[in-house]
Write a structure and sequence with these properties.
Layout: E1 2-7, E2 10-17, H1 32-45, H2 61-73, H3 79-90
Antiparallel strand pairs: 1-2
Length: about 90
């Protein structure tokens, strides 16, 4: 997802780009089951759904959830791909 700054309703600057993968079904629509899994992993990354633990216990769950989330739902573009996204976003 590309976030752009607008001036007079025209894109003038790319503010941020999120390199995410959207889970799609065979028809090209957002896959509700995989999207639910994505949201559950995102919640686990921040410790939502944690049960009480003893003080001396380190919860490794959020770390593992973050690694899994990035492996399944993020991508690392090449410099050429980054440049192409910026160029496309700033076309008038």
């Amino acid at each position: 997802m590309v976030y752009v700054e607008l001036a007079d309703r025209k894109p003038v600057e790319v503010v941020r780009i999120d390199y995410m993968l959207l889970p799609l079904d065979p028809e090209g629509r957002l896959d509700a089951n995989l999207q639910s899994r994505k949201l559950i992993l995102a919640g686990k990354m921040f410790g939502f759904g944690m049960t009480g633990t003893a003080e001396r216990v380190v919860d490794f769950g959020p770390y593992l959830a973050e690694k899994q989330y990035h492996a399944e739902y993020k991508w690392k573009p090449t410099e050429n791909e980054k440049r192409a996204l910026v160029d496309l976003a700033l076309e008038h």
